[in-house]
Amino acid sequence: MLKYPKPLEDLIEDFTKLPSVGKKSAERFALYVYTKLSQESTEGFAKHLMDVKQNIRLCKNCGNICEDEECSICKDASRNHKQILVVETIKDLYTIENVNEYQGIYHVLNGAISFSKGIGIHDLNIESLIELVKKNQLDEIILATNATLEGETTARYIKELLSDYPIKITRIAHGLPVGGEMSYADEMTLLKAMEGRREY
After folding, report:
1. Cβ contact 104:80 at 8 Å
2. Residue 115, φ and ψ in degrees, nearest 5
3. Pairing label, strands 57-58, 80-87
4. Mapped to the 3 state alphabet, what secondary structure does the chain carry?
5. pLDDT per residue of the chain (200 residues) written in tens, 0 to 9
6. Backbone angles phi, psi at 62, to 5 degrees
C-alpha cells in the first residue's frame, strides 16, 4: 500500500485526534496545509496552536478560560457575584454569555458524570463549587447542565451536595425548541417541557 511521506502521515494522524475528524477529513486537511498554505500562514497556524497551549489558563475562580489568573467575568464588579450559573463546558458558558441576558457569574464543571465513559464525581470541578458555597453568602445556584442522562445525574448530585446550605438552587428549564413540533420531540424533552411550564 502506498503511504504518504512520514511528515504528512504524522500530520494526518494529528488531525484525526480532533473531535469529529475522520481519516478522510484529516487527509484532506493535511494535504491542504501542504499544497495551499504558504510558509508564512503555516508558521502562523503553528504559532497560534502553541499560543493557545502556553498563554491560556483556567480562571482560578470559575474555570473559564483566560489569559490572567481571573477571567473578565469574575473581574467584573458590575456583575452579580451572589448568583452562580453552573455549566458543563466552557462552550456552554460562551453560548449563554452571548445571549446577553445573564448578569451573574459562572462555574464550569468540565464535563458531566458518566459512569459509562468512566467520568466520576472526582473528575469534575465540583469540589471548588462546594468551597465557594461554604465561604460566601450566595443567593442562588443555577444548574444549567444539559438535558441528558449525564446532565441530569450531575445536576441532582450537586443539588444533593448543597441541600444542607441555606441557598436557593434552581434548574434551567428544558423543553420544546422555538419552532419545533411536538410530534418530533423525544420523551425527555416533553417531560422537561411539562416540568418547566409556567403561568400563562
Report:
1. yes
2. -65, -30
3. unpaired
4. CCCCCHHHHHHHHHHCCCCCCCHHHHHHHHHHHHHCCCHHHHHHHHHHHHHHHHHCEECCCCCCEECCCCCHHHHCCCCEEEEEEEECCHHHHHHHHCCCCCCEEEEECCCCCEHHHCECHHHCCCHHHHHHHHHCCCCEEEECCCCCHHHHHHHHHHHHHCCCCCCEEEECCCCCCCCCCHHHCCHHHHHHHHHCCCCC
5. 889 999 999 999 999 999 999 999 999 999 999 999 999 999 999 999 999 999 999 999 999 999 999 999 999 999 999 999 999 999 999 999 998 889 999 999 999 999 888 898 889 999 999 999 998 889 999 999 988 889 999 999 999 999 989 999 999 887 767 676 767 777 777 777 777 776 65
6. -115, -15
Residues 149 and 113: their CA atoms lie apart, in Å, by 9
Whether pTM > 0.85 for this model: the answer is no
Indicate the residue type of 30.
A
Q: How far, in Å, CA of 9 to CA of 26, rounded?
A: 10
